[in-house]
């Protein structure tokens, strides 16, 4: 592992003289293939044990789905360390690991903003992405779904962040100088991974792109994944707890469209969290680059 010079911004941390720059492309593909293999195995086991009816998702199906994305955390870290010769912890932040106090503050802010947004949707009678307006009865396995959500959705969200805003963002930063290009390209890749327009609606595309842009900007500006993990996890936890209580778990995971009214609320929510997160980062003295040499 080579030494990382002081004042190196987060998006440049995968640039390493001990490994050719082109290895970041190989690394991104290696993680992707590893994820595909792990997903086939995990979902195959789930299907063999308990297959959900078409259009539905049980607590067991949600658990399996979340686990397929959790594996992105060790895969991303392993490839960054072994292939790219990156010092451990630098995918998490410029400090060489997750910064737990900022993570807690970001998480608190994200949860509060998510609940406010949910209240706006409910009070404003805004149609949901599942095509519904009002809550119905709870899912038969609502308690189990909520338990799975609380135990695994945070790690599922973190898995996506470690790959898209961690490895891919640093990989792009190792190849191009423009931070704006790094932010936009990784946001587009994140959006495409969740469904490519026009196969999914323009509104849903804008919704996911907005989150990807805000999350990438926060990673670059705060020097780590803590804010993006918090926003992503809070969104997923609130979404699936609400889905469990309204029997829309399967529909929530497989949405293909969203009304512009809901997308507007989401975009405002993302931007609001971004602004609050930057204030928190400034108050806590977080920096966008490392302050001392790291090995």
Question: What keywords describe this structure?
Answer:
295 residues; 10 helices; mainly alpha
In short:
The protein is mostly helical and 295 residues long.
What does this molecule look like?
The chain has 295 residues and is mostly helical. It has one domain (10-284). 66% of the residues lie in helices and 0% in strands. It has helices at 23-49, 59-70, 72-82, 100-123, 142-175, 179-193, 202-222, 226-246, 249-253, 260-284. The longest helix has 34 residues, at 142-175. It is globular. The mean pLDDT is 92.
CA-based gyration radius: 19 Å
Question: What is the strand content?
Answer: under 5%
Low-confidence blocks of residues: none
Overall domain count:
1
- The H/E string reads HHHHHHHHHH
What global shape is seen? Answer: globular
Helix content: 55-70%
Q: What is the distance, rounded to the nearest whole angstrom, between the alpha carbons of the first and last residues?
A: 6 Å
Overall average residue pLDDT: 92
Number of beta-strand segments: 0
With helices defined by DSSP (H or I, 4 residues minimum), what is the helix count?
Answer: 10
- Protein structure class: mainly alpha
């Amino acid at each position: 592992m080579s030494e990382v010079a002081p004042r190196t911004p987060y998006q440049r941390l995968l640039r390493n003289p001990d490994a050719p720059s082109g290895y970041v492309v190989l690394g991104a593909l290696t993680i992707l293939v590893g994820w595909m293999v792990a997903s086939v195995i995990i979902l195959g086991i789930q299907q063999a044990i308990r297959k959900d009816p078409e259009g539905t998702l049980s607590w067991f199906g949600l658990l399996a789905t979340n686990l397929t994305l959790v594996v992105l955390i060790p895969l991303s870290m392993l490839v960054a360390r072994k292939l790219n010769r990156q010092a451990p912890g630098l995918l998490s932040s410029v400090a060489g690991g997750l910064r737990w106090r900022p993570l807690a503050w970001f998480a608190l802010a994200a949860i509060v903003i998510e609940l406010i947004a949910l209240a706006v949707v409910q009070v404003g009678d805004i149609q949901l992405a599942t095509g519904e307006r009002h809550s119905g009865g709870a899912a038969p396995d609502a308690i189990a779904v909520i338990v799975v959500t609380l135990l695994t959705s945070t790690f599922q969200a973190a898995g996506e962040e470690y790959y898209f805003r961690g490895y891919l963002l640093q990989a792009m930063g190792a190849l191009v100088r423009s931070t704006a290009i790094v932010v936009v390209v990784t946001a587009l890749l994140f959006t495409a991974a969740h469904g490519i327009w026009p196969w999914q609606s323009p509104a849903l595309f804008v919704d996911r792109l907005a989150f990807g842009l805000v999350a990438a900007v926060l990673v670059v500006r705060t020097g780590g994944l803590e804010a993006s993990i918090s926003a992503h996890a809070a969104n997923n936890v609130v979404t699936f707890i609400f889905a469990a209580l309204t029997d829309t778990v399967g529909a929530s995971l497989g949405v293909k469209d969203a009304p512009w009214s809901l997308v507007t609320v989401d975009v405002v929510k993302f931007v609001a969290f971004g602004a609050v997160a930057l204030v928190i980062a400034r108050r806590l003295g977080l920096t966008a680059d490392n302050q001392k040499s790291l090995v």
